[in-house]
Structure formats: C-alpha cells, structure tokens
Design brief:
single chain; mainly beta; SH3 type barrels; six-stranded antiparallel β-sheet; two-stranded antiparallel ribbon; 10 strands; about 50% strand
Length: about 100
C-alpha cells in the first residue's frame, strides 16, 4: 500500500475532495483508510449504563485508499508515488517533484 499511518494525504474524490488530513488507521483487508477530519458523520449511540442518555457522536468513517494521494509540501499538492530501491531499503518517491517520503 502506498500510504502509511501518520502520512498527510489529500482526498481526490468524493464529497470531501480537496481536504487534507493525517492517516489515523489503515484497514488492509478492505483497502480503506481513516483520515482525520475527513468523511465525518453522525453515529447514533445506544443507551447504556455508562451513557444513560444515548445520543449522537461525530466520527470519521473510512474512505477508499484509491481516493487519496500523499501530500507533498514541495509540489504543494497530492502526488502519486513510486518505490525506489536505495541500498537495502525501498523508499517512496513523489513522481512529479522527487520528494522522498521515508
């Protein structure tokens, strides 16, 4: 996957197009990511002993990983990446700007 936790990404498709945020969690099996402040919806809470009133909470929901690009400060936009071998390690490199992300 071209995205890692704590990467800053830009959303490229959907209702949240253009928004930026930090990746909080990656759901590998579903191919989705949770991005901070993106795709926020209201979730209804059931009444429990700990929360006798119930209610609603704003929560981030996952979006597809194909709809996000890594944010590059050098390019000033979201960029596609490729893997380049440097010695024993593989490094993610932004295609138009050459920014190294690892």
């Amino acid at each position: 996957m071209h995205i890692k936790v704590n990467d800053e990404v830009q959303v490229m498709a959907g209702n949240n197009r253009g928004k930026r945020g930090k990746v909080m969690r990656i759901l590998h099996k579903e191919g989705r990511v949770l991005v901070e402040g993106v795709n926020v919806r209201l979730k209804n809470l059931q009444k429990t002993q700990a929360n006798p009133q119930g209610g609603q909470v704003e929560k981030e929901f996952a979006i597809d990983v194909s709809n996000v690009l890594l944010w590059s400060d050098k390019a000033g936009k979201g960029v596609r990446t490729k893997m380049v071998a440097e010695g024993d390690k593989k490094v993610r490199v932004g295609i138009p700007c050459g920014t190294k992300f690892d």
